[in-house]
């Protein structure tokens, strides 16, 4: 009876959370404003997992377990909670590193991932922006059409993102994110030892929950900044809760780097309530110092674009008549650009987030909220930090685009895992044989799903990776990408670093007829058009008008033989 009650409570809470998220998501579906990626991810990746998990929950309620299963699972729980910490940490590092090479093929699918690598090339060469080849400066916009800032004299380009993640990606290459993913687990162990010192097995419980998160592992295969955010957030938590001037200086350094990783808003939203709780607990000098560092970091990194132009002695884009918005304007735009449809979008994001974690994570997180609130201090801050991040993302950027799980909550996965561990111990679940059995079963299911997620990730990335390889292999000076009816075909236009193999790539959308004619007269030009995109397997948006099939604008004699 106790076993059935525990499974029933955990299963019911899991189902209720999923039902709430699904209800929110339905508002987007009914309104007819669901973008391709959320719906495709739900249809092809998450719906099969939802069906399988709900079937398992139903089976657990209806079928009596074999005799001795409870005892066996409890013994297994005792064994896995005696594992040394390096086992799950090493598992995540090896899985993420191996997956970066084999599952994703080191191909940066999204433009966020590409720019992290592209900016890294420039940064490790000692320059904040990459040089644009002189002969192609007038074509710069067509050569890097997405998330690009180009200097006023068209001599340099870089992404619109902050540089710290790109610097680490440049320095460490494919090892960077696996190191961050595994390093975040090490930091989480240090935090849980600080905050739950009496729960001796708490560190390994946290590590197992992390190691059975497909999102934690697969995001660690990518060049996204999210694994770095997770690492620096947890490193900051470790240091800021230590006493002593040296530790607070180190925490300040972590905060400074965290603000400059990718987008400066992520860390202040995460850290704000922890700073407030430090102040309320009487550690006012620490709170004031950290608040000062975070504010200073935001100011410094908001000036990064201007500093990069000054370092290079070049002109900002405003000199070309395209001025940059002020920090206040950017914040106002972010806060006002979404409407009520963002609620439905967040519902789809949260369904996806839930399906990419250990099934125990969110039920335990929800169960931990009242416990954490009573404890106040660190634990109350962990709850508020997580919920504030969720609210911030719902208001500012509900659409994540590409991502494995929901990447905009990735940097608070540490918070949520720590809170799940708190519930596990403070609610007495760690002492109950049935709950232990459920823990083992959930971990087994999660581990079984990880290979499935690998397959899904590989299958999704493959068409764009294949198209990229085909473009790179073309015997041509220029490739014009002109497949607007194929999703994310413009993402194939990538030209950094300069010394890479393959032709220069440009998008037809940002070339004038005179520019195309000039290119055709000076270079051999190939076209990546609808037929090539279809052959690579890129999905289509809609059937284009047959009377206007597009093309590069070059005559047949000027094109190379570059069809694939």
Distance between the termini: 64 Å
Q: How many structural domains? A: 2
Number of helices: 23
Summing up helix and strand content along with how strands pair, one would put the structural category as mainly alpha
Tell me the strand order in the biggest sheet. 1-3-2
The global form is globular
Q: What are the secondary-structure elements, in order, as H or E?
A: HHHHHEHEEHHHHHHHHHHHHHHHEEHEH
Runs in which pLDDT lies below 50 for 5 or more consecutive residues are 319-324, 543-553, 555-564
Mean pLDDT: 88
The whole-angstrom Rg is: 25 Å
- Proportion of beta-strand residues: under 5%
Number of strands: 6
Largest sheet: 3 strands, antiparallel
